[in-house]
Task: inverse folding
């Protein structure tokens, strides 16, 4: 079974390209904090490359930006290619099946902000529950 679930922040704005067949592909990387601190007491992070295909990739390009927090469900894929200088290069990336946007679109600081209570909520009165059957 090849399945991974990640939560992290984009390290740069997503890049959208299309294949020669016209299929959209979006690429970005995320920083995922490790669970434990190192010997200096600092939490380290892993930087992982993400690939999102077709419509979801177009949505990622449209709505995500550097610093956005995302949840990714996908699989790990390794591939190799010959570089222009003749060397063989190896790449490991996450091919996303699902991308959940965890940062609100209008949030400046990268975190979701709670909604301010409306005036109607402030006018609510407590309920006398003595007469309730449960």
Result:
């Amino acid at each position: 079974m090849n399945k991974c679930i990640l939560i992290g922040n984009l390290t740069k704005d997503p890049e959208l390209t299309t294949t020669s067949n016209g299929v959209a592909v979006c690429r970005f990387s995320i920083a995922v904090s490790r669970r434990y601190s190192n010997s200096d007491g600092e939490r380290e992070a892993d930087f992982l490359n993400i690939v999102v295909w077709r419509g979801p990739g177009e949505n990622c390009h449209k709505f995500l930006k550097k610093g956005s927090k995302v949840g990714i469900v996908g699989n790990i894929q390794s591939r190799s290619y010959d570089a222009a200088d003749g060397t063989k290069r190896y790449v490991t990336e996450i091919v996303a099946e699902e991308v959940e946007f965890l940062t609100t679109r209008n949030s400046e600081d990268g975190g979701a902000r709670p909604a301010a209570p409306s005036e109607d909520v402030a006018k609510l009165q407590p309920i006398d529950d003595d007469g309730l059957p449960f």
